[in-house]
C-alpha cells in the first residue's frame, strides 16, 4: 500500500471513529452496527419500500437478525412496518418523521467529523504505527 493510500485510510478510520464517538456521546438512541446498517439501507437506498427479505439479501444477514434490528428501530420510532398493498403477505419498512430527523442529525455528525479530520493533522492508527515499527525492526 502506498503512503498516500495509508494516510487516506487512516483519515477515513479516524473520521469513522470520531463519528461513532459523537453518536455515543449524544442524547439520542445508541444503535448497534447492524441496526445502523438496516436504518441507513432503508433511508438511503431505494424508495423506502424495503422488505425483511430484501434487507436480509442486501446486507447478507439472516431474516431473524433483520427482524430484531427492525424491532429496535420500531421501538425507537425510527422505522415502521406497513402492509404491502400489492402483496398482503409481505410487510414494507417505511420511514418515520423521527427517523428522518435522526438521519439529518447523523449527517451533521458525519460532516462535522469529516471537517475536523481534514483540518487536523493525520493521526496514525494503531495498525499504521505497528506497521512502521515492524519496518524499522526488520
UniProtKB/TrEMBL annotation:
Higher taxonomy: Bacteria, Pseudomonadati, Pseudomonadota, Alphaproteobacteria, Acetobacterales
GO biological process: response to stress
Gene3D superfamilies for this protein: Winged helix-like DNA-binding domain superfamily/Winged helix DNA-binding domain (1.10.10.10)
Provenance organism: Komagataeibacter europaeus (Gluconacetobacter europaeus)
Segments of skewed composition (Basic and acidic residues): 129-138
Location of region: Disordered: 117-138
The encoding gene: marR
Alphabetized GO MF terms: DNA-binding transcription factor activity
HTH marR-type domain segment(s): 1-138
Protein name as it appears in the record: Multiple antibiotic resistance protein MarR
InterPro entries, A to Z: HTH_MarR-typ, MarR/SlyA-like, WH-like_DNA-bd_sf, WH_DNA-bd_sf
